[in-house]
Specification:
mainly alpha; two-stranded antiparallel ribbon; about 35% helix; binds 2-acetamido-2-deoxy-beta-D-glucopyranose; heme binding
């Protein structure tokens, strides 16, 4: 069972001749530190071995040796960085309001700022939030959710409310929904930190993440980043199993799928995450895409061995995902010209190189938390279509959470794939869908309000107030609510005043929910700013970035051109199931044109 892995201890085998590094500092571990780790039984959790780097080797599965001067930077489990100093109260408690009182309850913030209901996006399809799920899982992990639903389930019991591992969401007396239900509390556990595992003596809480920080297909090649297990060592292929005439990643005891409905639903991935359906669909597509590419490569290069086929196929698969993310998905959200002006995209189709060897692959905590804004784009009822475009039914997305067995059964994959193509996503117009608001983990919890937890997490991670981000990105000093007018409409400012007493109290997420969309784009302006910052860091810090001419095993011009042609539409045609028609611009709705 994978629960043992929550402590991320079940990871790397010792590598001969390598050097042992400390995760938190990314430096070689000192003898005295090692002695300390041994005394608290934390050696395997807090340190790991890195085999010597070869400047010409392929991108490693564990992310090490990306930066040759700092081989340990860029591995999974290395701490995120912060855009600004954290704001905590008393060390690691959520910050207080300006008047010294507690901030308003997160649930109060959510119910005041976001309406609940259906709202279809006028332009974008379900592919947009679904691909976002893949990107998120590529750089974060869901061990905290697993912990909350499977291990530490009693945070709302009065005797556990003050348990340091618990941080439940209290529901106000006058709650618009739960004054009728009698539910007064929603379970939530505190995010796991290096401090919890004795991996640092730093006082500032530093959350743990289990995926590598680069966009490198972590969730396809193994969430555990010991992806050696996922390889078949033949023909460069990943191990796959057939079900219903289609190929899927293999089952294994490590998978956690408590909601599979037997006897039909048996699939539960051993090396990949078993999480939300939209992630699972994309993960399966990119998983198959690896094997598709490896087989095509073997046809034209019959002399290549397994290693060359595997590494080349992986490199292309990652490049395809990165290109899709940067040149298709991002422009649909932020506008192509905005991204060119911000330096995230290049206008010409050739090589580009903004690599900086003093940088390294790393995520900002601000980015990882801000991405939760995408919950406001979730349409939670999946409309199912057959391959001829007939609507054949509905499936609530959250009913198939932690239920990997559903997708391979019957014609579900055909129905869901055609639904992604034909259904609009939710319009982020200061509203959210019902299930996101009240039914985040059906069957496992009575009530979970996901965006309420998102606000709560801003505070648990010590993110600075919203106005600090406004200052950082717009150089606007906000002294009172009216100063927000350049970013937020009057009506939303009014709503913010209903919950927050002082403008400096506003949480980042609450500000982003309230903002107008960026000019030329379709998302919150501050979210866009945080994404631009993080994505530019990614390109600068990743020595293996696919657009570079001078990287190990770089493409030639013609090869790069082929990668750029590999669109979402192409992917669906190559590896989709029951997909007969696609939209050329894959992230946009089917329209009259
Ligand atoms: C030490 O930690 C490992 C996991 O890292 C665990 O399996 C083992 O039981 C622990 N031993 C003691 C004495 O706590
Ligand atoms: C809001 O809080 C700041 C300190 O964070 C304080 O300087 C300011 O006077 C407060 N504004 C009002 C209107 O109370
Ligand atoms: C919180 O968890 C407990 C124990 O698992 C469960 O009985 C309760 O229904 C949960 N609360 C909500 C609001 O879901």
């Amino acid at each position: 069972m994978s629960l043992k892995c929550i402590a991320a201890v079940c990871l790397l085998a010792n590598l001969a001749l390598g050097l042992r590094y400390d995760y938190h500092s990314s430096k070689p571990v000192t003898r005295s530190l090692l002695t300390y780790y041994e005394s608290v039984n934390a050696t395997d959790t807090c340190t790991y071995d890195v085999a010597p780097c070869d400047p010409n080797e392929w991108r490693r599965l564990d992310g090490s040796c990306n930066n040759l001067k700092h081989p340990a930077k860029g591995t999974y489990f290395v701490p995120m960085i912060r855009l600004m100093e954290p704001h905590y109260h008393n060390g690691n408690e959520p910050r207080k309001a300006a008047d010294g009182e507690d901030l308003p309850l997160p649930r109060k913030v959510r119910t005041t700022l976001l309406k609940v209901g259906k709202s279809s996006h006028p332009e974008l399809s379900q592919q947009v939030p679904s691909f976002a799920a893949l990107l998120l899982m590529d750089t974060i992990s869901i061990h905290d959710i697993e912990k909350m639903v499977l291990v530490k389930t009693d945070c709302c019991e009065p005797e556990h409310m003050n348990d340091p591992e618990c941080t439940p969401n209290i529901i106000p007396e006058d709650d618009p929904v739960h004054r009728f239900s009698g539910i007064r509390c929603m379970n939530l556990t505190r995010p796991q930190t290096y401090q919890d595992f004795h991996c640092t003596s730093d006082k500032v809480p530093s959350p743990i993440i289990r995926a590598t920080p680069a966009f490198d297909g972590s969730s396809v090649y193994s969430q555990f980043n010991d992806g050696q297990n996922a390889r078949s060592y033949e023909g460069g292929l990943l191990i796959s199993e057939e079900e219903n005439g289609r190929r899927f990643p293999p089952n294994g005891p490590r998978g956690v799928c408590p909601l599979n409905v037997p006897p039909k639903e048996t699939r539960c991935y051993q090396n990949q995450m078993n999480s939300v359906l939209s992630h699972n669909v994309y993960m399966v597509w990119f998983f198959r895409n690896h094997n598709y590419i490896a087989k095509e490569l073997a046809k034209v290069n019959p002399h290549w061995d397994d290693e060359t086929l595997f590494q080349t196929a992986r490199d292309i698969n990652i490049a395809v995902q990165q290109n899709m993310q940067f040149y298709e998905w991002l422009p649909s959200l932020m506008g192509f010209d905005n991204l060119v002006n911000a330096g995230v995209l290049s206008k010409n189709k050739g090589f580009r190189d903004i690599y900086d060897e003093n940088s390294y692959p790393v995520m900002t905590l601000d980015y990882v938390i801000a991405l939760r804004w995408f919950h406001t784009m979730l349409e939670t009822t999946a409309h199912l279509y057959d391959k001829d475009g007939n609507r054949v039914g509905d499936m609530p997305f959250f009913d198939v959470l932690f239920r990997s067995g559903w997708l391979p059964s019957d014609n579900n994959e055909e129905y869901i794939s055609n639904g992604f193509i034909r259904q609009p996503c939710h319009n982020p117009d200061h509203s959210i869908d019902f299930d996101v608001a009240e039914r985040g983990l059906p069957f496992l919890q009575e009530a979970v309000d996901i965006p309420t937890s998102d606000v709560h997490k801003n505070r648990l991670f010590g993110l600075p107030p919203y106005v600090d981000y406004v200052k950082l990105f717009n150089d606007i000093t906000v002294n009172d609510f009216e100063d927000l007018a350049p970013l937020i409409d009057e009506q939303q400012i009014y709503n913010l005043k209903l919950v927050y007493k002082n403008v400096t109290d506003i949480d980042l997420m609450a500000g982003m929910w309230s903002e107008r969309h960026m000019e030329g784009g379709r998302i919150s302006k501050t979210l866009g700013d945080i994404m631009v910052d993080a994505l530019t860091r990614t390109i600068k810090g990743d020595r293996y970035w696919y657009e570079r001419k001078n990287r190990p095993h770089a493409y030639n011009k013609a090869q790069l051109k082929e990668v750029r042609k590999y669109t979402l539409a192409r992917l669906l045609c190559n590896v989709g199931e029951g997909v007969t028609h696609v939209t050329k611009r894959g992230f946009y709705n089917v329209g009259p044109k």
